[in-house]
Amino acid sequence: MLREIVIEIYLTIFKLVFTLFKLCPLKDKAVFVVSFSQNNLYIYNEIRRKEIPIEIIFLVKKSCINDFKNVSDAKVIPFETANIMNMLVSIYHLASSKYVIVDNYFGFLSSVTFKKGVDCIQLWHAAGAIKTFGWKDQSIKNRSAHARKRFEKVYKQFNKVVVGSEAMASIFIQAFNLSTENMLRTGVPRTDLFYDKNMQQKIIRRLYQENPVLKDKKVILYAPTYRDSQLNKVNHVAIDIEEMYRQLKDEYVLLLKFHPAIKLSEDLKSEYKEFAYDYSSYRDINELLLVTDILITDYSSIPHEFAILNRPMIFFPYDLNEYNSERGLWGPYEELVPGPIAYTTTEILSLIKENHFDYNKIQDFNKKWNLYSDGHSCKRLVEFLFMDVTAQDEKERKAAREVL
After folding, report:
1. What is the pLDDT of residues 249-277, one digit of tens each?
2. Do residues 266 and 331 share a domain?
3. pLDDT tens for residues 348-361?
4. Contact status, residue 333 vs residue 324, Cβ threshold 8 Å
5. 356 lies in which domain range?
6. Which of 31, 187, 350, 354 could form a disulfide with 372 if both were Cys (CB 3.0 to 4.6 A apart)?
7. How many CA atoms lie within 13 A of 65 on its CB side?
8. Long-range CB contacts (< 8 A, 24+ apart) of 216-219?
9. Does residue 321 sit in the same domain as residue 396?
10. pLDDT in tens, 126-155
C-alpha cells in the first residue's frame, strides 16, 4: 500500500512538470530512456555514421550509466534519481522531443500525454522470450487494480515495438495488448554484431588479451536468469562448480555471468582459479558469446541471439515447476528451447562429454526468432525513425514508412 502511494505521488509530480514543459515547442531531438545500453548505443552509432542532424539525449538508469562514458556528442543524464535538477531536465527533454525511445517498462509513461506527432518506440531489451512478461506475467495477478490500470496506460503509449521476428511480434501483441500494426519489423539492433566479422575479431582479441586462458581452452558460459530470492545472497549458485572443475578443468574454463546482486565469495573465486571466472560485472553479454563454445542457461533470452552463431546450448531449469507457477512461460519448456534439458550437474556433464547436440534444431530456432535480424537491423530502424528529418518531401517519408 505504501509503495503504491509513493508511486502515485511521484507520477503526479511527473505529470504536472511534464504538462508545464509541453508548452515548449517540439524539436528534432531523440530521447532514449535506457535501462540496457546495447541496443541504444548501436542506434546512436548508426545515427552518427549517417550524419543525421538530430540532437540525442540519453536518460540513463544508474545500472548502466558507465556504458555511456565515451559518448561525447550527446547529452547523458542520470534518470530516476533523487537529483531534482536531473529530473526536471529529463522531463523537459521528454516533453519537447519528437522521438522517444524506451527499452523497458517505465512507469512515468502512464502519467504523460505526448504531443501530436511524437513517436514513442519500444526498443525491448530481448530478441526473444521464454518467460512471460506484461499482461501474461503470472505475478500480475498479485498487483492492485490501480497498478494494472497503470500498466495498461504504459503499454498504450507504444506507437511501435521493434521486433526481430514474427514469433516475437506475437508475444508483444499478447504481452502489451497491441495490434500487428504496432510491430516494427526491422530486426534487433544489437544483433548486427553477429554479422560484423571485423568488430567480432576486435572484441575477441581484447577478451583474449584480458584473459589468455580463454584462447587456450574451450569456454562454457553459465548465465542463469535472475531470481528475486537470490538478492544479495552469497554463493547462490545452482550448478556444482566443484564437480565441474574436477571433471572439466583440463579442457574447459567456466565463465559465470550472474546478476550483479548475486555475490560470489572470494574463496570460491580463488578455489577454482584458472577454471571458474566471474564475469558478472561484464556489461555486454553478447561480447562474451563470441568466445563461448557451450552456453548453459534456463529462462533467459540469451539463446535467441546465441543461436545466430549456431553453437551448442544446454538448458538447466532446476526450479522449473516453481518458476513456471510464479512467473509463467510462453509454452511447454521443452518446446521453447533449442537444446537438451538437464536438471542436475551430473546430467550437464554427461551432455558436455557426449557432445551430442542437434544443430538443425538450433538453426530452426534461429530462423524462427531472428527472421529480420540479418545484420542490417540498425540501418533499417534508423531509416524508419528519422526519415522525417532527412527526407526531401512528404511522398518520400510516406514511402519509407510503408516499407515497414
Report:
1. 999 999 999 876 676 666 666 788 889 99
2. yes
3. 999 999 998 999 99
4. yes
5. 193-369
6. 187
7. 11
8. 217/251, 217/252, 217/253, 218/251, 218/252, 218/253, 218/293, 218/294, 219/252, 219/253, 219/255, 219/291, 219/292, 219/293, 219/294
9. no
10. 999 999 999 999 888 888 888 999 999 999
